[in-house]
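Onboarding guide, step 5: your first structure request.
Type a short instruction followed by the sequence, for example:

Predict the 3D structure of this protein.
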Amino acid sequence: MCFVGHPSEIRPPNRKSRLAPFPISVYSVCSVGNSSDTSQLPVAIIGGGITGLAAAHRLARQGRPFRLFESSDRLGGNIRTEHHPDGWLLEAGPNSLQLTPPVAALLDELALTPLTASPAAKNRYIVRNGSPVPAPASPPAFLQSPLFSLPAKLRLFTDLARRPRNRTADISLADFVGSHFGHELVDYGLRPFVSGVYAGDASQLSARHSFPSLWEAERTHGSLIRALAAHLPDGSVELNAHVTGLVPGQPWKLSWRRTDADHAPHTASFAAVILALPAASLASLPIGAMGERPLADLADVSYPPVSSLFIGYKRNQVSHPLDGFGMLIPPAEHRSVLGVLFNSTLFPGRAPADHVGLTVMTGGALRPDLAHVDDDPLLALVQNDLAELLGVNGDPVFVRRNVWPRAIPQYNLGYERFLDVIDRAENAHPGLHIGGNVRNGISVPNCLAAGETLASRATEPATEPSSQRS
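The system replies with structure tokens like these:
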């Protein structure tokens, strides 16, 4: 699913008060005294990605003053759409999201119309023995599918006889699924999904933290970004604002400087602080009068690099019908590509007439070196795979590359130690609330839900600190 009206650059509407160092607005009123009455002070939100924007939107709906600080010159984080004048439209980050009930409710609030995937994108392909094979979408299709052998199919039915199991220790996602369904379903079902979605390694990802619903099941049985930004009050957003430190207390003191102007230091007071940042930014953020870094251990969270290539061809250059969502390539196939999205099949307007657009992902936890290969050699590797798997011939007519040096946090085995670090920081500093993909899940719906939760927690009356485990 995507949205009508994606912008190429995500910025707040052109309002001078938004960009002034000290906007004159109820949303930026700051106390310089030491009063313990913080009820009239705004909430600080650090990070203007999807989680921070969702938190800001919810606070605005509640009529609660806030101020959002984003170190770059745009909002949206890794979510970015690019329009090209010759008819190509591409996503630099996530291409779609699941229309869950909370997401549907948010879209309704923002008056956005969801654009669902075309019926022509009915298939999901998985490569086996050098050929794309449609993934089975139903039990009868699974029994008839050439993707899995007869022993693998029979193994699926033996799992129905298993009794509930309460594991005492975490295991890898590969071992978890393998213990239920065998290694063939791991190699040609789980691993391509994990490498294509997480850019991760199923042998390293934690079953408990990466897929908590599976763990629990075993135990029991338009532009979203621009719309969010447009609904924020005047004076509530500071772009190019680098937060240099936080001092806990009643009120909280936040120090920051502009990165696009005078670089002069500024200080403001807040009732509470929401941190919606990636792990590395959390790790380096001083929190305390002496510049302490209670989240420093988060620097060890693994973020493998990913390179995304949007490649355009004339339709007659591709022999495959492209009648699907895309194609995942298992590591067992020893290819350079993690997966391919059939963008021009999924949604209209992604390519000029008589052309097709594909998004190709490389790199990830298993082949991080490929994310850093120079443009021409990488394109040659990708072209070879596309020629053999999709029948592509000739050079592309359009290529756009985006590299994410730190793409997706990996919930690897032992990840609970990072969650403990976050819990301890919150418990030690009342009024501090931390969330986002480092804690609450990597999907866009996960991050939206995290923002809603953070806004709710930041406006609750002070209570005894508690763990916010998802």
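Each response can be followed by summary notes, for example: The domain at 117-221+304-407 is CATH 3.50.50.60 (FAD/NAD(P)-binding domain).
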